[in-house]
Amino acid sequence: MAIRTPSTSIFRPQRGTDQRVLEANRDLVEMINRRNVLRGAVSLGALTFLTGCDVTEADQVQTVLRAVSSWNDRVQQLIFRPNHLAPTYSEAQVVKPPRFNAHYEIDEVSPVDADDWKLELSGRIEDKRPWTAEQIYQLPEQELIIRHICVEGWDYIGQWSGPNLRMFLERVGADLTAKYIAFRCADDYTESLDMATALHPQTILATKYAKEPITDPFGFPLRLRTAVKLGFKNAKWITAIEVTNEFPETYYGKEGFNWYSGI
Amino acid sequence: MQAADPFADTAPDNGVADAGVAVSHRRHGPKAHMRRLHPLPIRIMHWTNAVAMFIMIGSGWKIYNDEVIFGWLHFPDFLTIGRWAQHGLQWHFLGMWIVVLNGIAYVTYGIATGRFRRMLLPIRWKDLIATISDALRLRLSHQDPTRYNTVQKLLYVGVLAVGVLIVLSGLAIWKPIQFSELLALFSSFQTARLVHFLCMTAIVGFVIVHVALALLVPHTLVAMITGGPVVADETAPQEPTAQLEPTH
Questions:
Q1: What digits encode the pLDDT tens for the residues A30-86?
Q2: E strands, A24-138, in order
């Protein structure tokens, strides 16, 4: 095992410690020595945080943080007002094109071919026949001009339209008393919502942006758009919908993002 | 009620006299109600808050870095808490419970015991000018930690107000739709974000001054650990100074 010399650090004195300061402040130093209790307490805390990168990722810390995050899911469900509508905006405020967000760059998007595409249904749904894009485009549309808020902190106003999700779920005979609705996407992204959010009047399966079919980077041919969740909860390029009572794990949930992420 | 006060008999041994503090229970009549300058609940809440602030600021900087408000300002990674932004968020949404529960306990205690009124009021222009004038002539006294000067009072009241504002703006950012009425007070989501950021800046500024002064006048720091000198509870009637028996 090689013996390494300490690396040069701006926090390490270059030429030993000057003892004069210690002599001049001996009284103060002795006083500080009486603070062992505080020092011990603070050092323990400081150790936890200064080495934050390693400790944060340690399993035990993640277990605690994720338990708090689950608790926060429940609190957010209590706070949720099912009939409280998000503010809507005028067409003049709509940003075109919308802002892209995904866990990869916009030029890495693989477009979906609408002719081959099908929306599959599974779980607690009576009529599980798959839907073609053509069939979905024939459903009555609802338009939402709402604010998109990203977990990162940016926002913009977008104009989305498509069938209301509650109407769609009723139409296919979904069990509206089930707990969750899960989405699978063409890029293998997974996302899920609590049923209360799925049934909110401002939750739609969007097919259009600013009255035109949604373009490839933003979820063509079908994506979710809800006014009451952060951006990443709005699954794009949806290929399957499942209604279930089993908690559906999600792509970002596994990464440590809060599952509920209501706004 | 003296017999019920656990600190009344231990006053002479608390070590604070070494720090040159002349206040002691011996200066008051035996019937005066005695307590520590910083009673135990205050000390627990103070250090709980210190830990919570550490978590909130460090994780807040991690979250900020993910989408900066000012292009020229990124916080160095070693000052932030959490590996990635989502871990910063996890810490922030843990810390918020500590801040809010501890803050509610602190404000309730401060009002119910009269501590806020006793320690932080009154704030008068005349006293403020006198304090500033003393400070400029380097005559500001640090011997008596039981009384805050007017600048201290203003800073403590100010940071409490900022504390309320940072919680409100934080709630508005966390729940801009569920609490859309609250968000409307800040006009927009980005304004609420900016207010939250500016409140953080004010608190960091306060912490720097607060910690620097505590280190310059160490007996104030010791008092927040040991409880500090024993003082008369002013809710009980006080004897005039002239009638005090001389101390030995």
A1: 665 555 555 555 555 555 555 545 554 578 999 999 999 999 999 999 999 999 999
A2: 120-123
Give the residue from chain B lying closest to A85, CA to CA.
B177
For an interface test with B, which of A78, A88, A263 has the most B Cβ atoms less than 10 Å from its Cβ? A263
Number of domains composing chain A: 2
- The one-character DSSP state at A202 is T
> Within A88-174, where are the H helices?
133-137, 165-171
Do A129 and A215 lie in one domain? The reply is yes
Domain range enclosing A53:
20-67
Sign of the dihedral through C-alpha B88, B89, B95, B100? positive
Residues A170 and A105 in one domain: yes
Which of chain B's residues have a Cβ under 8 Å away from the Cβ of A73?
none
Q: Where are the domains of chain B?
A: 2-239
A258 contacts B89 by C-beta, under 8 angstroms: yes
CA distance B9 to B161: 37
Domain B2-239: top CATH class: mainly alpha
ipTM reported for the complex surpasses 0.95: no
Q: If you compute the radius of gyration of chain B from its CA atoms, what whole number of angstroms results?
A: 21
User: Best mutation site among A11, A27, A29, A38 for testing chain B: the one with the most B CBs within 10 Å?
Assistant: A38
Token code pair at residue B167:
């919680």
In a domain, A187, yes or no: yes
